[in-house]
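Continued from yesterday's entry.
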Amino acid sequence: MSFSIIVFQGPSASGKSTLQARLGLPRIVTWTSRAPRAGEQDGREYHFATREQMELMHRQGRMLEINEYRGNLYGTSISSLEEAGQDGQVRSSVMEAKGARLVKELLGERALLIGVSASREQLERRLFERKVSIEEQQFRMASFDEEIAALSQCDMVIRNDESQFHVAESIIDYIRLGLEQK
């Protein structure tokens, strides 16, 4: 089996991006309609486009999915997924459950879906420690149950609670080693 993309999914603050970074694979660069933040470059953090451009790309069938978050669109282009792995280099992405499911439908066995979970209490504490506003914490945690339920679509689920960080990191290290040996 040869993967071309590894997708991380799970609730907010579960550690998806942290585990993705530990894996050390190039990221699929996704799209957004929000303005670049200081230091961000088009094509590195995101492909920046207008809402109209992204909606047009979606209508033309060039976007796998688009989601609205806090008034901005975010999405993944089909071409970025189809090109993943063509150069022999596996890519990675962090996605919501719907997007991860669509990637699996598009790429089948070439996609490895890794769910990342932690307890509600752990996630709430992480958001608090990040100094996320109470309103934002409530917004992010509102989908917790739905996101945990969606982990059933994953090929594997990593428990990333505080007491199991070392286990989660070890699993990612083993995956990285396996990819390096192929």
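--- second protein ---
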Amino acid sequence: MSTRATYKFVSDWAGTHTAYIHHDGYPIGAAGYLNNQGRAISSINTFIRANEQAEITADHDSHADTDYRYTIDGTYITAEERVKEDAFGHTWQTDKFKTFWEGDIEDFLIIFCPHADDLKFINEENN
């Protein structure tokens, strides 16, 4: 099943750019996309080079079918999940998102990355 997500990168010098990936947008998958050989990705250029399936898109709202959206501003990440509503035995997506994570991108990777022990910034702090 596809779990779509957008990744918006905000930069004072490069502007704001957003990428879309069609699958693995849940937090563990996003942590994998934001992990570049053990280092946190904080720029759109590095993100696109590290993830060949990523497509540049206008903004978070360009894809109505996304389940997650991530905003990276320097080393700070805000992670949001689409709100789903249940009624009468049916579940449907709304156009609302709720924040489930805010904080340093390295902390996000530590919590959600499946191979957190391989992250270089953790290993450098422990040496």
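Strands lie at 5-11, 15-21, 35-36, 39-40, 55-57, 68-73, 76-87, 90-104. The mean pLDDT is 89. Will compare against the first tomorrow.
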